[in-house]
Amino acid sequence: MTGRRRLVVCRAEELRPGGTKLLTPGGRRRILVARLSDDEYTAVTDYCPHQGGPLSGGSMERMWVGDDYYEHRQAEDRWVLICPYHNFETDARTGCPVLRINRSRAATYPVAVEDGDVVVYV
Ligand code: FES
């Protein structure tokens, strides 16, 4: 990936689906890397789109979805990051807030598995 810095996060087997890992490259930027499934990872900036709380201090859970009123279940393939400050939910894949109360979103970064390493390009 040209123009971006390559950061090795960890070995792929070190992150289970639903697991997260915080990166602090250079000690300034904070990037939260998460494993969504056996073969999908995501990386978002560690700042909540609501008021900048640390997403890494919260939890990651499967998103509640429903096909009809009063029916709900946890999605197999959608995850939310829940902020510890006000429980705002951010889509872990897109960085977008689940409830659109403003136009903010958490920045996302490309992630790949290369030779068994999880790698983020920032
Ligand atoms: S700062 Fe994250 S929910 Fe308010």
UniProtKB/TrEMBL annotation:
Coiled coil feature spans: none
Record has Iron-sulfur as a keyword: yes
Record-linked InterPro entries: Rieske_2Fe-2S, Rieske_2Fe-2S_sf
Keyword field contains Nucleotidyltransferase: no
Location of the Rieske domain: 7-120
Matching Pfam families: Rieske
Keywords per UniProt: 2Fe-2S, Iron, Iron-sulfur, Metal-binding
Name of this protein: Rieske (2Fe-2S) protein
Organism in which the protein naturally occurs: Actinoallomurus spadix
